[in-house]
Structures are given as C-alpha cells and as structure tokens.
Amino acid sequence: MVPLNRHIVRLRRKSPVLLLALLAALLALWAQRRPASKLTHLRVVRVVDGDTIVLSDGRTVRYIGIDTPEQGQPYYDAARNFNRKLVAGKQVELEFDVERYDHYGRLLAYVFVRDSKGRRIFVNAEMVRNGFARTYTKPPNVRYAEMFVRLQEEARKNRRGLWSVYRPTRQPVVGNRNTRTFHRLTCPLAKRIRPHNRVRFRNAEAALQAGYHPCRECRP
Ligand SMILES: [Zn+2]
Are 56 and 114 in contact (CB under 8 A)? Predict the structure, then answer.
C-alpha cells in the first residue's frame, strides 16, 4: 500500500497541471459565450433580398432570427430595398451564434454596419423594427430572439411595413415547438406535427407574441 503522504505529494505535483487545464477549459467556455464580432474588411457586394446578402469574399450571409417576404409576396421589394439602404457597399461586422451554417451552406450571422454618423446599426433588428421582417426563432440560434419578438410587437402595433396589410386569423392555431411555425388547424402541414411538438394558441396574435411565425402555405 502506498503511504498516504506520498499520495498527497503526487496530488500536489499534479495540481498545477490540473489548475491549468481547468483554466484553459474556463477560457474556452468564456470565449465561446462571448460574441466574437468586430468590423471586418468584408463588404456587401450584393443584396439578395431582405435577409440575405453576399460578401466580398463570395460568401452568402443569411441573417439570424428573422424572415423577410419571398418574391411575389407583399413587401418583398420594400424589404430588399430597405436592406439595401442599410448595408449595400458597406463594411460589415458579423456576430455568430451556436450554428454557423444553414443547410444551404449560408453563413448565419447577426450583421452590424455603421451609418453615416458612425453609429452602429444592428441590421437584423432594424429589419424587424421597421416591419420588413418577421421574427424567425430557430434554436439553437436564439441569442436575440426575445429582442426580435419585442421589436416585432412594436412594428405590429404601429402597423409598419408588412404589418399594415397582415390580418392575423382570430381562429385558434397550432404551433410546432421545433420549427416555431404556426398553422391554421386545417393546414395539411399542421397535421404532420408530432404530438410532443404541438402547441395550441387561441389565435394568431398569441402565437406571434410567443415568437412563432406564420406558415407560408396556410397564412394564418
Ligand atoms: Zn400551415
């Protein structure tokens, strides 16, 4: 049997290493939690639509947490033009969340630019605040989800942009906890939601307030 004091000596000898390892782990954790964002040398060379841009290094960036109208939908042009006004030709600052890419290979980011007075503009938030985007909460990228819902409420109450033409249904709707989409009860997609992901709301407004976004098929 090894005497106890020798055990202690061994532990003491090891402890600086353990301490360093612990410190390194904590540092890594801290670095991960701290949003890494700084003004890059990258510029916006193309504004695809209200929530997608192309950078000077060729990468396509999809804004996190928001969704703007698709081609053919009301406010598609308005959203793209507003986005263009905010970012076209500018240097961008990118902040990332947990997932870096979507399944189309687009870089997912919170995008910041400077306006003519040097003020920092949070582009994703501005799109929502001005009624050109809906919130699109898709876990695990949810860092600013609550802020976006708050801004959407502000836009909706003031009937800004797309909210000026949107008439949410007063009928009960059903949401999908996983995708955060909500549907009319009659929507074929609603019937496919798995029981443990189903959540009922008394109407579309309640679903919007909970951060869910309306289905593009049934438009509740
Ligand atoms: Zn639907």
Answer: no
Is residue 6 predicted with pLDDT exceeding 70? no
What integer pLDDT is reported at residue 192 of this predicted model?
A: 95
pLDDT band for 166, please (50, 70, 90 cuts).
confident
For ion ligand 1, residues whose CB falls within 5 Å: 183, 187, 189, 215, 217-218
Residue 43 is a catalytic residue:
no
How far is ligand 1, taken at its centre, from the CA of residue 177, in Å?
14
pLDDT of 18 > 90? The answer is no
Q: Is 70 a catalytic residue?
A: yes
The residue whose two tokens read 């979507």 is: 102
Same domain for 156 and 182? Answer: no
Distance 207 CA to ligand 1 centre (A): 13
Identify the domain containing residue 191 by its residue range: 167-214
Instruction: Give the total number of structural domains in the chain.
Output: 2
